[in-house]
Amino acid sequence: MNLDRSVPVWPQVADDLRRRLDAGEWRPGDRFPGTVDIAAQYDISQSTAQKAVAAIRSEGRLRTVLGQGSFVCES
Question: Is residue 1 part of a domain?
Fold first, then answer.
């Protein structure tokens, strides 16, 4: 994915992660990639990855279990 660095990056990453969720790359109950992995995959900072994941979590698509990570929720 080519990111447009002239605008905020985290919404672009969040949109791409949503697209991948919609495509079934991760199914309900699957562990979602951590922010370190997302940051490396998109070549962004970890704080930017955290913002993208937080946006998806706020939509109810992910749940986070302390010490275990984030998991995909039923749609």
Answer: no
Q: How far apart are CA 43 and CA 66, in angstroms?
A: 25
For residue range 27-75, what is the model confidence (pLDDT) as tens digits? 999 999 999 999 999 999 999 999 999 999 999 999 999 999 999 999 7
CATH number of the domain residue 20 falls in = 1.10.10.10
The answer to whether the pTM exceeds 0.70 is yes
Domain that holds residue 36: 9-72
> Can you tell me the distance from the alpha carbon of 37 to that of 46, in angstroms, rounded to the nearest whole number?
9
Q: How far apart are CA 73 and CA 64, in angstroms?
A: 10
CB 3 within 8 A of CB 14: no
Phi, psi of 71 (to 5 degrees): -130, 150
On whether residue 3 sits in a domain, the answer given is no
